[in-house]
Each structure stands twice: as C-alpha cells, then as structure tokens.
Amino acid sequence: MWDRCSEAAPAGPPPLPPAPAPAATRALSWAPAGGSAPEIIGHLQENYYNLCVEKSQKINYFILHKLQEVDKEIEKGLEGLTLNIAGNSCLMPVERVTGEDFWILSRILKKNLYINGLDVRYNLISDVGAYYAARLLQKQHKLIYLNLMFNDIGPEGGELIAKALHKNTTLKYLRMTGNKIENKGGMFFAAMLQINSSLEKLDLGDCDLEESTVHLGHMLKENHCLVELHMCKHNIKNCGIKQLCDALYLNGSLRYLDVSCNKITRDGMVYLADVLKTNTTLEVLDLSFNRIENAGAKYLSETLASHNRSLKALSVVSNNIEGEGLVALSQSMKINPTLSNVYIWGNKFDEATCVAYSELMQMGRLKPDNTDVEAFVVDGHVYLAEVSNGLKKHYYWRPTYGAACRHSANAGFTLVPVGGHL
Fold first, then answer.
1. Distance between CA atoms of residues 233 and 235, nearest Å
2. How far apart are CA 307 and CA 286, in angstroms?
3. Per-position DSSP letters for 161-191, written without gaps between them
4. Per the confidence metrics, is the pTM higher than 0.85?
5. CA angle 406-204-269, nearest 5°?
6. What are the beta bridge partners of residue 228?
7. How far is CA 139 from each of CA 5, 7, 135, 392, rounded to the nearest angstrom?
8. How crowded is residue 400: how many other Cβ atoms within 10 Å of its Cβ?
9. 231, 263, 275, 342: which has the fewest C-beta neighbours closer than 10 Å?
10. Which one, of 15, 105, 106, lies nearest residue 59 by Cα?
11. Partners of 256 in beta bridges
C-alpha cells in the first residue's frame, strides 16, 4: 500500500532519491547563456529552490526557469495554467527532468490552485517519476492534463499510473505515448477505463502493446466518457479492427479514433465501413500508414456517400491506394456534406486523382487548410504537391520557429475539443 501521508519513497522500487550531490554540483545544473542562475522572484520558484536545498537535491535550473514563467502568469491573476517543462525544446538549453527532479516538482504542485496542466514530455522520469506522478494524481484535484510521453516509463510505472486513475475524478487528458508499458501495463489501463469516469482523451500509441484490441474493445463497451483514443503501433490486424468495430456498435462517446501505423488491410475496412453506417458519434478517423488499398478506400467511400453523416475528418495517408480508390473518396465528398477534412499524401496519384482533388478545391468543397495536398499545373497537366497540414503534424515534434499549434497542422484536436487547451 502507498503511504498517503509521507512523501518518502517506498521501501521497494522505485528507489529513494540518490545521495546528496556535492555542493558545487548542487549550486548550478543549468543556467542561461549569461552564465548566472535566474533570480528567485516567485512563489513556485522559491518553494522549489528551498525544497531542493532542504532535501539536498540537485537544483535543475531548467525547471526553475519554467517555474519563473508560470509565477509571472500567476502574478497577472491567471488561472488554469499549464506548466510546460518539455525536454525537446529547440530554443533554449535543456537539462531533462529525472525521476528525482519530478519528486521535488510533484511536492510543490500537489496543492497549487493555479496549475491544471503539466507537460513533461521527452524527459527521463522513468518508473521513479511515474510513482510520484501517480501520487500527484491522488492528491492534486485540479490537474486535468498530464503529458508523460517518451519518459522511459515501463510496465511497473504504467501500472502505478493506471491504478491511481481508478479513483481520480479530475484528469481529462493523459498522454503515455512512447513509454514501453507493454501488454502488462496496457492491461491495467484497459481495466482502469472500465472504472474511471472522467478521462476523455488517452494516447497509448507506441507503447509496445501488441493486439490490445480485445481488452480495449471490452473497455469501449463499458466506458461512455472517453472521447479520444490513440492506438498507434499496436500491431492491429484485421481481426483486431473487427473487435474494435464490434465495440463501436455499443459505444456512444468516442469521437476520435487513431489506429495509424498498424497492419490493417482492405478486409478490415469491411468491418469499419459497416459500423460507420450506424455509428453517429465518430468524427475523426486516422488510418494513416496501414494498407487498405483501392478496395478498402472504396468500401469507405460507399458508406460515406450513402449512409454516414457524422465523420468530419479522414486520413488515409500512405495506404497504397491508387487512382481508382482516391477518386472514389473524392466523389463521396461531393455527396457527403459533413466530411470536411481528407488527407491522402503518400498514395499513388495518377492524373485522374490530381484532377479530382483539384476540382474539389476549386469549387470550395475542400478547403486548402483541410487537406495535405495542393494542385499545380505544368504543361497543361495537373499535379498535387504536399503541404504541411494534417490531423496531428506537431504531435511528436515541435517546429524550430512559428506556432506549434496551428489549427491546420493539428486539425484533429480542433475538430474534437475537450475544453480549454485540450
């Protein structure tokens, strides 16, 4: 059992924070280009600095700098803030957050009333940090957004976080992307989702889960709160998509389904096209990097033309679709008034495809920001070029300049908002 009163680590794994570093090391671990540490000017900064000294923990000046930014926002009277300590910043030096850093950070956040979002993506918090993240979810009743993607969290850390969410009633958005929680950790998340009544967006993509659709399918039959689910790189095959579709007949809440980078072929599209005939909640469907080919695209096109009027966005990027299937999708858009976003790059374009999508854009049926191609003419022939739009272009990386949250580059989140910055 976890000790809910003490902040010390348990006797077993995860281990206690390391012994105190030498004083010279503790004094400065990151500093701005000028070489001096930032001035301690705010409440969060002061708490963090003092707690590091009290616990003989090395001060991470990247964290200190980010707390300074939030302190300034708090001074302006702002609430509902996200503390962004992402470890993949291209604009400043970064010392990545470790599990021991997260131990200190979680202690100063657990009673903070101004912060309801925490982004620590691309750091090194591991299972040690996952333990303290789980405790934070138990104690911090304002947190609605937690981004832990790519943090070396394993099955044990995944289990701790999933179990913490059994009783949590505030968290709405969790990203576990890229943490290798494997099937063991995935089982705990599937079980949690049959109990949890608040989580609306969950990303378990690239977590080394294999054919997780049996358990997540059972979850979808029971859960009526989840709005967005990412299952990228789950090794889903046609039998897996059938299990998901069986669950979608009974689910009335899911609006965004991401099954990109799997092994779904045209046979799987038979099941999906059939469920789309009756499903009225699904609005965004990401099939990128599968292999549905012409036949799969035609199954979808027929349903979109004749039955479905709820789907708003479809991505079939890199699915080995040729002109026949791509033209069929374009024809369905002329009939279906709801489908507004279509992404097709990475397939096999012929001239008929180029003409068909050029005509959709010229007539205003397909807006330039709602697709990943644009038309141009050379010697009287129409061609398509790629543009940087998509459902989640800036999901795994940040541009070196410009905004990372352009609506056209991250259309999926614009189409299915949960609230605020989520």
1. 6
2. 19
3. HHHHTTT--S--EEE-TT---HHHHHHHHHH
4. yes
5. 85
6. 201, 256
7. 10, 11, 6, 32
8. 8
9. 263
10. 105
11. 228, 284
**What ranges in 58-181 are assigned the alpha helix state H?**
61-75, 99-109, 126-139, 155-164
Token pair 């580059």: residue: 409
Give CA–CA dist 6/15, Å, rounded: 15
What does 29-57 look like in DSSP terms, one character per residue? S---TTSSPPP--SHHHHHHHHHHHHTTP
Q: How many angstroms separate the CA atoms of 179 and 189, rounded?
A: 13
Taking the CB of residue 54, how many other CB atoms lie within 10 A of it? Answer: 9
Cα→Cα distances 229→80, 301, 308, Å: 24, 23, 20
Query: Does residue 334 contact residue 361 with C-beta atoms inside 8 Å?
Result: no
Asked if residues 198 and 227 have their Cβ atoms less than 8 Å apart, the reply is: no
Residues 66 and 92: beta-carbon distance below 8 Å: no
Q: Which two tokens stand for residue 384?
A: 């398509």
Q: Shortest CA distance to 230 belongs to which of 269, 274, 186, 265?
A: 186
Instruction: For the chain, 422 residues long, give each residue's pLDDT as a single digit of tens.
Output: 333 333 343 334 444 444 333 333 333 344 444 445 555 556 899 999 999 999 999 999 999 999 999 999 998 888 889 999 999 877 777 899 999 999 999 999 988 889 999 999 999 999 999 999 999 999 888 899 999 999 999 999 999 999 999 999 999 999 999 999 999 999 999 999 999 999 999 999 999 998 788 989 999 999 999 999 999 999 999 999 999 999 999 999 999 999 999 999 999 999 999 999 999 999 999 999 999 999 999 999 999 999 999 999 999 999 999 999 999 999 999 999 999 999 999 999 999 999 999 999 999 999 999 999 999 999 999 999 999 999 998 777 766 655 556 788 889 888 887 654 45
Question: Residues near 54 by Cβ (< 8 Å), separated by ≥ 6?
Answer: none
Give the neighbor-by-neighbor strand order of the sheet with 341-343: 81-84, 115-119, 145-147, 173-175, 201-203, 228-230, 256-258, 284-286, 313-315, 341-343
